[in-house]
């Protein structure tokens, strides 16, 4: 994990450096995240139903978002991430979920239409539009029907704005353009505010 990776022109290399670095912090707030995420998962459950469904969580971090789906009665839940340090912690914290290393823009290990729900929590705002499109196309390919994005919406809390600045994320453009980006790729798109500067974006594929 050389420091030069933070200054790399390769956005994924820089992001991987940052997320490997902050993995211990993420692990420390995992339980608090689960509490917050449970409220959002309740909305997902009411909207599309979670019980018995297979779920793939892209950019799973320490696995808090994946784990709330399991708690809500999902069947198989699997998380992928490109940060080895995150994966070490997710495996320890959430043995009820399976995890593997993967790059969200290209997921050859997963077949077409192989999960009922493909989801990502606070991942897509972090990358530029081109990468975001690649990730969404992979999510669309792997999902039988539902793609659920949990991410920024509305006013972003101050401390998060600072973190996003350090991460050099695309969150401002994300908030402005994401619904239109989704509509250009998916059959149906719906958005629900979940409070505290976040929201749920529901998109439906025509794979079924
Ligand atoms: C902000 S964290 C969110 C973690 C978790 N989903 C949550 O909501 O708590 C973003 C996660 O996405 C992962 N990530 C970012 N870009 C990725 C990519 N291109 N491929 C795989 N994982 C990626 C990072 O390693 C990090 O764990």
As a whole number of angstroms, the C-alpha radius of gyration is 16 Å
- Order of the strands making up the biggest sheet: 3-2-1-4-5-7-6
Would you list the SSEs in sequence order as H and E?
Answer: HHEHEHEEHEHHEE
In total, the number of strands is: 7
- Which kinds of small molecule does this entry bind, naming each only once? S-adenosylmethionine
Please state the second-level CATH architecture.
3-Layer(aba) Sandwich
Question: Quick one: CATH superfamily?
Answer: Vaccinia Virus protein VP39
Domains (count): 1
- Summing up helix and strand content along with how strands pair, one would put the structural category as alpha/beta
Count of helical segments? Answer: 7
Q: Mean pLDDT across all residues, rounded?
A: 95
The coarse overall form would be globular
In percent, how helical is the residue content?
40-55%
Task: For this entry, give a set of tags.
208 residues; alpha/beta; Rossmann fold; seven-stranded mixed β-sheet; 44% helix; 22% strand; binds S-adenosylmethionine
Describe the structure.
The protein is α/β, with parallel strands linked by helices. It has a single domain, classed as Rossmann fold (3-Layer(aba) Sandwich). The protein is 44% helix and 22% strand. The protein has 7 helices and 7 strands. A 7-stranded mixed β-sheet has the order 3-2-1-4-5-7-6, with helices on both faces. It is globular and about 45 Å long. The mean pLDDT is 95. The structure holds S-adenosylmethionine. S-adenosylmethionine is lined by residues 12, 15, 19, 33, 59-61, 64-65, 81-83, 86, 103-105, 121-123, 126.
């Amino acid at each position: 994990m050389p420091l030069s990776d933070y200054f790399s022109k390769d956005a994924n290399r820089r992001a991987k450096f940052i997320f490997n670095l902050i993995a211990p912090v993420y692990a420390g707030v995992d339980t608090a995240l689960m509490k917050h995420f449970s409220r959002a998962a309740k909305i997902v459950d009411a909207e599309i139903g979670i019980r018995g469904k297979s779920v793939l969580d892209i950019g799973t971090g320490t696995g808090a978002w994946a784990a709330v789906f399991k708690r809500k009665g999902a069947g198989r839940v699997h998380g992928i991430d490109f940060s080895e340090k995150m994966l070490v912690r997710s495996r320890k914290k959430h043995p009820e979920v399976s995890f593997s290393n993967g790059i969200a823009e290209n997921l050859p290990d997963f077949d077409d239409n192989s999960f009922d729900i493909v989801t990502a929590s606070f991942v897509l705002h972090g990358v530029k539009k081109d990468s975001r499109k690649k990730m969404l196309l992979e999510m669309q390919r792997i999902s039988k029907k539902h793609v659920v994005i949990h991410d920024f919406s509305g006013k972003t809390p101050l401390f998060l704005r600072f973190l996003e600045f350090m991460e050099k994320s695309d969150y401002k453009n994300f908030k402005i353009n994401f619904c239109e980006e989704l509509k250009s790729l998916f059959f149906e798109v719906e958005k629900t505010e979940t409070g505290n500067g976040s929201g749920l974006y529901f998109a439906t594929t025509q794979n079924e």
